[in-house]
Amino acid sequence: MRRLQVAVSLLLFVTTAAVAQNSRSAVSLNGNDANTCTLVAPCRTFGVALAHTNPGGEVIALDSAGYGQFTVTQAVTISGAPGVHAALMGTGANAVSVNAGATDAVVLRNLVILAGAGAVNGIEILSANSVHVLNCLVRGFTANSGVAVIGNGAQNTLIDHLVAEENSLGVTIFTNAQVRARITNSEIDNNTIGVYAINDVEAVVSNTSISGNGTGVHVQSTLSTTADVTLDHCIISSNGKGIFATNPDINLRAVVRLYGNVISYNIGAGVQNSSSTAFTYGNNALSANHPDVMGGLTALAQQ
Asked: What's the Cα-to-Cα distance from 105 to each of 63, 79, 101, 141, 148, rounded to whole Å?
């Protein structure tokens, strides 16, 4: 009987240890993926640390290093510590994939995300309740997007202090379900298209530089839904085309709303409205484009 009790106790201990998880996990330059991923025994890669982390927990990069691409399937926060260069490279896939549950909140903070050979997207958001992308740099994803909100996406997406440069598409919002997105205080420069919003989208882009792109902002509907983008106090300059809103079918709906923006020095049109609706609140600086407006603007009274 004594031996049986000891055996059962050992089994329970081993089982508990095998499933033990952290509320706060850590990765480090000198970490080891055989560790438990705690602050005192950090792992080496984000992917392994995520497997050791409870839903709703966090993973912290303690040192400047590269920590490998990863997939998020639960509520979690993944951060580089202040002053740390927490980098990862997409190779043959997405650098970061978010495929979490419909009630999950995901935060990605202080990450440097670069494209390697065969990279797809920098950050791909397939599903979640909310995703916050904060203080991240995404560069070099020339096949696809720096940040892509696709599929069902996240019902609420916040992108703040993002630098997206030298991608095919800087930020893409292309979903089958309604997505509300905010892009604030960011730099979306030197991409083929800076912001690409398609289908069932309600997006506000505020206090953001959108410059040096082939097209700064492209808004389009391809379903019987409305792609609706408000640009608020943005700088949209030196693009091949500043803002392009288009309805390929007259029954579709693409809407752009302009408030307090500087839209200047674009090589082509500052605002091109092709069978869509472009509203202005009358306080935009539209000048030195070629031409400033194509297709007309509809004036709205300031509230």
From this structure: 25, 14, 9, 25, 17
Give me the tens of pLDDT residue by residue for the chain, a chain 303 residues long. 444 443 434 343 333 344 459 999 999 999 999 999 999 999 999 999 999 999 999 999 999 999 999 999 999 999 999 999 999 999 999 999 999 999 999 999 999 999 999 999 999 999 999 999 999 999 999 999 999 999 888 889 999 999 999 999 999 998 877 888 999 999 999 999 999 999 888 999 999 999 999 999 999 987 677 889 999 999 999 999 999 999 877 666 889 999 999 999 999 999 999 888 899 999 999 999 999 999 989 887 765
- CA distances to 96, 114, 192, 228, 287 from 292, rounded to whole Å, are 38, 35, 21, 21, 6
92/129 Cα distance (integer angstroms): 27
User: Which backbone phi and psi does 15 adopt, to 5 degrees?
Assistant: -65, -45
Nearest to 153 by CA among 195, 112, 92, 200: 200
- pTM for the model stands at 0.91
- What are the structure tokens assigned to 48, written together? 């392994």
